[in-house]
Amino acid sequence: MTKTYRGDVLTTGGPSYESNVTRFAYVFKYATAHADYLNTIITQSRRLSAALIQERVDIACIGGGPGSDVLGFLKFLLSQETKPQVTFFILDREAAWGDTWADLDTIVSAEMKTSRNYFPIDVTDPKSYEKFNRPFRSHIFKMLYFLSEVYRHKGDVSKFLELCFRRMTTNALLVVLDFHHSELESWIDSCAKNSGLKTLRADDDYRIFMDSIEDKSALGKYRTKFGEPKLQAKVFIRVFMKT
User: Were both Cys, which of 44, 50, 100, 121 would link to 129 (CB 3.0–4.6 Å)?
Assistant: First the structure.
């Protein structure tokens, strides 16, 4: 995992997550940090925070199979007095991620109502996503380390982004967090502008840290065997709104 993401991932693309070993490695190394980054962005955004304190919230997680974004939203929501009924639409090519997070809804069921729906799509193939409508009517959309994984298919993925942004409803929000890279930043900015999305936040070369209160002791023997998980990153952040 480290070799992949320290290399030229924009050229090579992300790894295959078909193997449960690879999925474990991703969850161990990145899931907690990425979830915490997302929670930080939500906390810093008045519009995002307000959108999540409603009776019902639908969230589309594009490339959300690894579960980091779901955990990030849940971390924020579990800290609030008002807890909505949340429906997550997970759009990801690797359906096996559903097995990794199969028990998550049960774990949080005592504190809030959540449901997750998996949509196995390939963002390079319009036939795999054009038939779906419901996920694209969500209140919040999220792309967490998604653009970098698919950048080598930029032409095809741009068609997916165009369709996604076109189907978004007025006032829907889009959160983007990824590696700090000018190519990624200009790509999403251009797609958003062409589709009538208003920029609410734009930070480049932003150093983000995982909250120090996160309890890493639960990693137990895995922490001893594999070392520390990810704690900080240099990223770019975007928050858009459909007008």
Answer: 121
- How many other C-beta atoms are found inside a 10 Å radius of the C-beta of residue 211? 13
Give me 180's structure tokens: 């700090």
Structural domain boundaries of the chain? 2-242
Residue 1: how many CA atoms within 13 Å on its side-chain side?
Answer: 16
Q: In the chain, what is the straight-line distance between the N-terminal and C-terminal CA atoms, in Å?
A: 38
Question: What residue type is 162 in one-letter code?
Answer: E
For the question of whether the overall pTM of this predicted structure is more than 0.90, the answer is: yes
- For the chain, which ranges sit under pLDDT 70? 104-105, 107-109, 214-215
CATH assignment, 2-242 = 3.40.50.150
Contact 232, 208 (CB under 8 A): yes
Neighbours of 167 (CB within 10 A): 15
Q: Write down the pLDDT at residue 130.
A: 95
Q: What are the residues whose beta carbons fall under 8 Å from the beta carbon of 87, sequence distance 6 or more?
A: 56, 57, 58, 59, 114, 115, 116, 117
How buried is residue 203: exposed, middle or buried, by Cβ count under 10 Å (0-12/13-18/19+)? middle
The tens digit of pLDDT for each residue in 130-156 reads 999 999 999 999 999 999 999 999 999
pLDDT attached to residue 133: 95
115: part of which helix (H) or strand (E)? strand 114-120
Give the per-residue pLDDT at 218.
74
